[in-house]
Design goal:
single chain; 433 residues; alpha/beta; UDP-n-acetylglucosamine1-carboxyvinyl-transferase, Chain; four-stranded mixed beta sheet; 12 helices; 24 strands; 29% helix; globular; binds shikimate-3-phosphate
């Protein structure tokens, strides 16, 4: 198990190309695999989670060259061309692979078994399994958790499903199953979640993206191979945005970051806290909005995080909490109980880590209160969660001493070059095996 030691750093400066978007990378592999013809992906994320998706499709008979330096060539087998893997598919730490593949495999003629690491085997799957069963899928869980056994069916039936929790993974699983269903499958969300699946479905179906259309799929959709470029991941950019905001005299440019409106509430939250972030060169690439972000140091202050931002910043709360700890005054996060069922219980992990560093942090069932102030040196547990590890690495750079983060290996799931890239921008991180 490796550790990271993060020490008070210099100002952050320069130009940093953040890693590619994890959510969009997964979807490019999934749609590329079941499309007719070749899909060429540029800037695919080579993190362990996406590689788990790649390897699952190889096991199901899809030829995938790469990824090498972000380039991958996927020889799509068409919507009915997947084959039984012949062994269980191990999806490692990746909840997105597990949930999206459950939807896709629920509509196949063959049986599949999906498993993952200890963290993934603790995560709730009934939120996906229940609607799929309503569509006629045959899926078995172990008390609502992986491993999942998915049995082949002739066909599914379309449903109209009101999501009880705001979850893009569940929405995407149902839409993927809808590609194998008689009739139309429609998902109604309590609040909009990331819409990368819908955007990519439009692109592979040869349609331009129309936000106003219903969130729906059906078996008549014909998917054709595409050339795609994956934007930089706003979730990875968030670590730089917070570090540069809090470290004096910083001025950092992050080119090519995805700013899909269903993903970028972290920008709204940090700006409300007083951050100096400028958006420029806005453009659309492969149906996704992209821009360059410039961030300069600013004095941040605490806020009550507006409830409407929670779903669209869900992965950024660990580092938003660190921003709150470095801000003046109190920040209150509520309505975020989903954080408890991520790669770790992120409410407990963040509050415990901040307390370890002398920060006044109070846990609530659906969030936390954080009173900004100074950090002391200390050692925190990441609970094997990549985003907790990286958030506390940022905490180390803005304090006066140093922070040791235990169990940091899983940063490879989403951000393999985190340590060298952060150091290139001015941070002082050391990885110890
Ligand atoms: C994701 C959706 C979110 C997010 C996860 C990636 C996706 O999960 O937390 O990191 O790619 O669809 P939920 O759907 O569980 O909110």
């Amino acid at each position: 198990m490796s550790r990271i030691v993060s020490t008070a750093s210099e100002a952050l400066a320069g130009v940093v190309k953040v890693p590619s978007d994890k959510s969009i990378s997964h979807r490019s592999v999934i749609f590329g695999a079941i499309a007719d013809g070749v899909t060429q992906v540029s800037n695919l994320l080579e993190g362990e989670d996406v590689l788990a998706t790649v390897s699952a499709f190889r096991d199901m008979g899809v030829e995938i060259e790469g990824p090498e330096q972000g380039e991958a060539r996927i020889a799509g087998v068409g919507s009915s061309g997947l084959k039984a893997a012949g062994r269980e598919l191990d999806l490692g730490n990746s909840g997105t692979s597990m949930r999206l593949l459950t939807g896709l495999l629920a509509g196949q003629h063959f049986d599949s078994r999906l498993t993952g690491d200890a963290s993934l085997r603790r995560r709730p799957m009934n939120r996906v399994v229940v609607p799929l069963q309503e569509m006629g899928a045959r899926v078995e869980t172990v008390d609502g958790r992986p491993p999942l056994d998915i049995y082949g069916v002739d066909t599914l039936k379309g449903i109209r499903y009101h999501l009880p929790v705001a979850s893009a993974q569940v929405k995407s699983a149902i839409l993927l199953a809808g590609l194998y269903a008689h009739g139309r499958t429609t998902v109604i969300e309590p609040t909009s979640t990331r819409d990368h699946t819908e955007r990519m479905l439009s692109g592979f179906a040869g349609a331009s993206w129309d936000r106003k259309g219903p969130v729906a799929s059906d078996a008549a959709v014909v998917l054709s191979g595409q050339s795609l470029t994956i934007p930089g991941d706003i979730s990875s950019a968030a670590f730089f945005l917070v570090a540069a905001s809090l470290r004096r005299n910083s001025d950092l440019l992050l080119p090519g970051v995805g700013i899909n409106p269903t993903r970028c509430a972290v920008l709204d939250i940090l700006k409300l806290m007083g951050a100096d972030i400028q958006v420029s060169r806005e453009r659309v690439e492969s149906n996704e909005p992209v821009c360059d972000l410039r961030v300069r140091s600013a004095a941040l202050h605490g806020i009550d995080i507006p409830a409407e931002f929670v779903a669209n910043a869900i992965d950024e709360f660990p580092v938003i909490a660190v921003a709150a700890a470095g801000a003046s005054g109190i920040t209150r996060i509520r309505g975020a109980s989903e954080l408890r069922v991520k790669e770790s219980d992120r409410i407990a992990a963040v509050v415990q880590g901040l307390q370890q560093l002398g920060v006044d942090a109070v846990e609530y069932p659906d969030g936390m209160d954080i009173t900004g102030g100074s950090f002391v040196s200390g050692s925190v547990d990441s609970f094997g969660d990549h985003r907790i590890a990286m958030a506390f690495a940022v905490a180390g750079c803005i304090g006066e001493g140093s922070v040791e983060i235990r169990e940091a290996d899983n940063i490879r799931t989403s951000f393999p070059d985190f340590v060298p890239l952060m150091n290139s921008a001015g941070l002082s991180l050391e990885e110890i095996s």
